[in-house]
Design goal:
With about 230 residues, the chain is an alpha/beta fold. Helices cover about 25% and strands about 30% of the residues. The chain has six helices and nine strands. The chain has helices at about 1-5, 20-30, 45-65, 85, 100-110, 125-140, and strands at about 10-15, 35-40, 75, 90-95, 115-125, 145-150, 155-160, 205-210, 215-225. The strands form two sheets. Strands 3-2-1-4-5-9-6 form a seven-stranded mixed sheet, sandwiched between helices. A two-stranded antiparallel ribbon has the order 7-8. Helix 2 (about 20-30) links the parallel strand 1 and strand 2 (about 35-40). The longest helix has 22 residues, at about 45-65.
């Protein structure tokens, strides 16, 4: 999401949906000492959690680096849809929206975006994207949708190969006697390896494949850009 927004040092960024404050921390580092982040959150518990995590991160930075990180993130508890007084007089290079109905907030946000600015929207359901596209179609907002991405993660199964009795399989060296024969899975007592320490390095084959049970979907990212009309 940060890459999609093309955030640079010195930028002014608007974030809606502070959550735990994780995205706020990345934005803080991206805009640097010359930039600023305005983060709004409608839920009180999320608002307090994001501030706490941000303060802890700055304390850790000072402990590790010996100097304070600039206090460049400003948190506010409010609904972006009704935040005209908060946004008055401000302008932004990019916007990150993590909210249920982002199309309802766009009329309040777009007038404060620089021309060419990116609005990155994080949504969990494809039906929300349809509502967003319909909101843009029915409005006169100078926004175009450049990209819709599904964010996926794929778990892998990586583990030593075991026999049915729980002992480790062994790598079989290729030889003239074994090249034309199939491994029937039997082994002598000397080949039974019950502990990883008994097997030499490189002696145990591994299972390495995508996990058979996948829950890869996390969310969608929508890239909007303000254009000149």
């Amino acid at each position: 999401m940060l890459t999609m927004m093309d955030v640079s040092e010195g930028d002014s960024v608007l974030e809606s949906g502070s959550g735990s404050g994780a995205m706020s921390l990345f934005l803080s580092r991206a805009v640097g000492s010359r930039g600023s982040v305005l983060s709004v959150e409608v839920r009180e518990d999320h608002h307090k959690r994001s501030i706490l995590n941000y303060q802890r991160w700055r304390s850790t930075w000072k402990l590790r680096r010996g100097e304070e990180w600039p206090d460049n993130v400003h948190f506010h508890q409010c609904d972006l849809i009704n935040s005209a007084p908060l946004l008055a007089g401000r302008s932004f290079n990019s916007v990150a929206l993590d909210m249920v109905n982002p199309h309802l907030a766009l009329p309040a946000v777009v007038p404060h975006l620089h021309d060419g600015a990116i609005c990155a929207v994080y949504l969990a359901n494809i039906t929300q994207i349809i509502d967003l596209m319909e909101g843009l179609r029915c409005s006169t907002l100078p926004l175009v949708c450049e990209r819709v991405i599904e964010v996926q993660y794929r778990d892998w199964l990586l583990a030593p190969s075991l026999k049915k009795d729980g002992t480790f399989n062994q790598r079989k060296p290729m030889s003239e006697e074994t090249a034309d024969s199939e491994d029937d899975g039997d082994s002598t007592d000397e080949e039974q390896l019950t502990s990883p320490k008994q097997a030499p390095f490189g002696g145990v084959p591994y299972i390495a494949r995508p996990h058979p049970e996948q829950l890869p979907h996390t969310a969608f990212l929508v890239k909007l850009r303000k254009i000149l009309k």
